[in-house]
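Attaching the record inline, Q. Sequence:
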Amino acid sequence: MTALEGLKLGIIQGLTEFLPVSSSGHLVLFSSGEMNSFTEILFHAATLLAVIIVFRREACATFLSPLRASRLIPEKGVKAFFMTPDARLLLLIAVATLPAAVAGFFAGDAIEALLHHPQIKTMVAAALTITGLTLLSTRFFEKKKNEQTPLQRISLKQSLLIGCIQALAIMPGLSRSGLTITAGLLLGLARPAAGVFSFLLSIPIITGASLYQILKTVKKGAATFSPAYHITGTATALVTGLLSLIVLIRLVKKGQLHHFAWYCFLIAIIAATVL
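Structure, as predicted:
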């Protein structure tokens, strides 16, 4: 495990974790089995930190809103607390996270076994094609601006549907960010709202994935730490994750999410014919 290998995987993880091109699909196609549970923990921590840095204002207001419950609930009741914008958003994120949590619990082992299937690269190619078609749909089906829902007015139904779509991204090649942002746009969310909700939704998902990898690592025994490999890879994942988040949010706001469809199609063709 060299610094160059860490650099390569850090770039792949940081860019594809947030850009709508499927990080899991890219790792299946290009990691050559170099990723292990300990490395995944570090890389997930780096990308989680990237989300928190970019969305620090929204993340702190939303995920720290329960700290205000001890003051507000005795004065005005539980209902008043959940009527505050931050607590309401936290509730919607919790609801949207449930489908992915259920999918991970019941299908996680099956997906992990699927990674060793001899036709996994063909399957990833098919999934990337679906991701590309999904992204391409945003060019044609986005609602008019005066019909769009801001972040503060997302409904329980919209959040649950986005959560169900997110659960599909357990399959390598289906992009979590691509599917959830597209679902938000097609359900009528304003572009900034779809982007912010998708990435706030990634915080419990990445945290859950990290905790799962920690349990796997503890179960298997001591993890091997290679300073050059792990420090280089983690730092690279953080920096590229920050850059990819900033770029993607700008493209979402401009209505240019569909441009990533062509990249997905290209990688799908390469996976099916070359790799």
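The mean pLDDT is 85. Residues 85-114 form the longest helix (30 residues).

More tomorrow.
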